[in-house]
Amino acid sequence: MDEIHYLLGNSCNLNCDFCFWEKKFPPATLKLAKHIIDEIKKTGIKKITVSGGEPTYTDHFLEIIKYAKKNNLEIILHTNGLLINKKIAKKMAPLISRISLAIDGSNEKMAIEMRKKPFTKHTLFLIDLFNSLKVPVNIKTLVTEVNKEDIENIGNLLQNKPIKYWSLLEFNPLGKGLINKNKYFLLSKDFKKIAEKVINQFPKIKIKTRKFMSKKEKYCFIAADGKVYTNSEEKDVLIGDLKTNSLSSIIKSNGF
Fold first, then answer.
1. What is the value of pTM for the model shown?
2. Is the N or C terminus of the chain more exposed, i.e. has fewer CB atoms within 10 Å?
């Protein structure tokens, strides 16, 4: 395993009705966050995917990623970007190797319909901003019954933007997504049809697809409280706690 997922916290400045995340953790102290990074470094893992909640909404966000960078860890940041302005972006740019942003609507009306806040224009601004700061950007789009007719329009927005790739994600009916399944659920055959169409329509964009029921590689992630989880049959399974065990021993005992 050469990469691990680190969730900085639960807090988020959005309240999306399709959010799959249900777990609640207390905010991590900077001391605990540094301990988690130390444990990651000891394993020899070189890359961490940082998310949340919304990671930039987490206390000590910049201090945490600075500490990870100081320990020679490559950081891929998943964020909605709403709290990032030019000043913050310039501080972040030397610390991260890639930033992953979301666009679920080609216009602000659809963005509100999907995520309750208008931030499509801001995300397009961030694409150009981070490109100017030499940070690669990828975009992810959740494809649902709500925005299925808008996916081509999103492609039109992105085809002339400097992005590394565009991911189309199939709706995952977990957490709040399960409660609101009737609103967002899209048949797998319809997701496949939409994906094939935009792949053919936008050959200049590198497009990836991620299906909900596709077989996933075994992985583990570390929550803000130091507990370590893996996935099993679409469920998160607790496999260790960094307050009592080393990450190396947890990884070894679980066959990673």
1. 0.93
2. N
Tell me the pLDDT tens digit for each residue of 160-181: 999 999 999 999 888 888 899 9
The DSSP bridge partners found for residue 229 are 221, 238
CB atoms within 10 A of CB 186: 18
- Under a CB-based contact definition with an 8 Å cutoff, are residues 55 and 61 in contact? yes
Rounded CA separation 251/61 (Å): 26
Alpha-carbon radius of gyration of the chain:
18
Backbone angles phi, psi at 251, to 5 degrees: -65, -45
Encode pLDDT of 197-213 as tens digits: 999 999 999 999 988 65
| 25, 99, 163, 212: CA torsion to nearest 10 | -20
Structure tokens that stand for 183 in this block: 């609103």
